[in-house]
Every structure is written in C-alpha cells, then in structure tokens.
Design a protein that fits this description.
Structural class: alpha+beta
Distance between the termini: 46 Å
Radius of gyration: 20 Å
Strand order of the largest sheet: 1-2-3-4-5
Number of helices: 4
Strand content: 15-25%
Largest sheet: 5 strands, antiparallel
Helix content: 40-55%
Amino acid sequence: MQLEQPSQEPTWSGTVPTAFDARVLGLVVVTAGLAASMNLPYGGVSLGLAAFVLLSGGGIVAHLLGERQLRRITDGLVERWADAGGRIEDVSRSANGMRTEWTVTTPKGTVTIGGLALIPIARVSIEWRGVADTMAANEAESDLDPLAESLYAEIFETGSRPEPLNR
C-alpha cells in the first residue's frame, strides 16, 4: 500500500479576488454627509445635496482606484513569487478594521497584504510571521520587482523555523 503524496501543483487559480469594501464606502458616505451638512446653513438644502453627491462620488471613486492599486500590487507580488518558484496555495480576501486585505497562503505560512484603499493616501502593508513593512502604495507599485525579490528571499528561501532573537 502506498500513501498518496501531496501534489506539488499550486491550488491558486491565478487571480486575486476583488475587495470592494463596504466599510470604507460607508465611511466615505458618512464623511460626505457630515461635510455636506455644513453647507446647509449657508447654501440651503440644494447646495448641501450637491455637496453630498460630489463628495460621496469622489470618495467612492477614490476607494475604487485605491482598491485597484492594492490589488495590482498583490497580484504583481504573487505572480512574481510564483514565477520564481514559490508555491502559492491560495489568495483570499480578508478584512481587518478599515483595511482592505488579501491573505496569501504558502507552505511557509500566510502573508497578509493590504492597506487603506483610498487613492490619495493609499499605503500598503505586507505582514509575514508577525512582522509588517508599510510603504506608500505608489512607491510599492513603482518598485515592485525589487520588493518582490526581497520578499521572496525572506519568505521562500529562509528556513521553516524563525531565527532566534538572542544568540
């Protein structure tokens, strides 16, 4: 009798799921409502309504663009890791507070990639084994190749056991 060996084929489908976050959209709408209500005493209901539509529309567009940018970064990192020989088991959407996140499952552990998905202030955070690195999303996107290489070396080429802090 032979035991079946686990397949070395990745189970990842090759796509990163979208992550439109209702919590961030809710924050945008509430903030737009509060800001628009400031116009009521000065411009009336019509100006307040116009300000609400303008602010909430701009905030929703900022979230959609921020989510796309974070998803491109996540997809680029995972794609480069897989091309370099790293085994990616799954990429799933996760949530933590007001952050938009993806959890990348590998045989070496889980990597969490995410951040606040609002384009003017979008920042990406990459966490593995409790250690996180945060940077501006524009910076991460422009330096994706060196970032992917350094993270690949840290995640896939290190031993399976973390190094002790005290030597």
